[in-house]
Design goal:
The chain has a five-stranded antiparallel β-sheet with strand order 1-2-5-3-4. It starts with about 40 loop residues before the first helix and ends with a strand. The chain has two domains: about 140 residues, no CATH class; about 70 residues, no CATH class. About 15% of the residues lie in helices and about 15% in strands. It has four helices and five strands. The longest helix has 15 residues.
């Protein structure tokens, strides 16, 4: 069974600063669904588990990511880097600031994609997003399918689970596969509710339409990478750029 600890969820919220020295550490081919058996505590410990980062009595941004009860420090807790946002929104997990920080689609002025030196791979991001869904099952009010989440579990311990006891995540929600054969777009990350692409020589509106989707937001692309430059927003209808990062929903 997938071993996903709450610690990984905050991994990218306030990752420690550093300098990009090894581009090979940036995201690999993304997966739509979590297919990893992650040893998350070990991953978290190696990425940001030190007294100089998010562990101990005086962690960065006041966030201890090693001690038990991490989800309590995520659920409905205001994001310190982004006014008006919460780290994990149990009523709409896909709109959580945490998920945006993982993807690099956070609003302008709300910090950088994290962790800075070593982003999670697309497969790891899918596992973190699955973890968010699993953690929200059974919370008061739950989340509804209309909100892009899972069914309200209420007081029924079996709600939201398959016969195998795991949350049913069989429906990825958005099909990103048309971008694999597209000549006007490069698929960067396939998420449960969106596809992140680079539009090549066309607008995000046109590129997203390749998969029957619409552009939700756009940014300049980071040179040499398939990633959004969150400090340089673009417009969905701008077709004058050679390379734009788009979030298609």
């Amino acid at each position: 069974m997938l071993r996903l600890a709450p610690a990984v969820a905050l991994l990218l919220l306030t990752g420690c600063p550093g300098e990009l020295e090894n581009p090979d550490q940036y995201p690999d081919e993304p997966l739509e669904l979590c297919q990893l058996d992650l040893d998350v505590p070990a991953l978290f410990q190696s990425k940001c588990g030190s007294s100089a980062c998010h562990e101990g009595s005086d962690p960065k941004a006041g966030l201890d990511l090693v001690a038990p009860g991490v989800f309590e420090r995520l659920e409905n807790v205001p994001a310190t880097q982004c006014e008006g946002r919460v780290r994990v929104d149990p009523d709409n997990p896909n709109a959580s600031f945490l998920v945006e920080k993982l993807r690099g689609t956070q609003p302008v002025g709300c910090g950088e994609r994290m962790p800075f030196v070593s982003f999670l791979t697309g497969a790891e991001i899918a596992c973190v997003q699955r973890w968010v869904f699993e953690q929200t099952i059974g919370l008061d009010g739950g989340v509804s399918p209309d909100d892009g989440g899972v069914a309200d579990a209420g007081d029924d311990s079996d709600a939201g689970e398959t016969d195998g006891g795991e949350a049913d995540m069989s429906d990825p929600g958005v099909d990103c596969t048309p971008f694999d054969a597209a000549d006007n777009a490069e698929l960067c990350t396939a998420n449960v509710d969106s596809c992140e692409i680079n539009a090549l020589g066309t607008s995000c509106d046109t590129a997203c339409a390749t998969a029957g989707l619409t552009c939700a937001t756009a940014f300049d692309n980071v040179d040499g990478m398939c990633a959004a430059n969150s400090d340089a927003p673009a417009t969905c209808d701008d077709d004058s750029r050679a390379d734009v990062h788009c979030v298609c929903e």
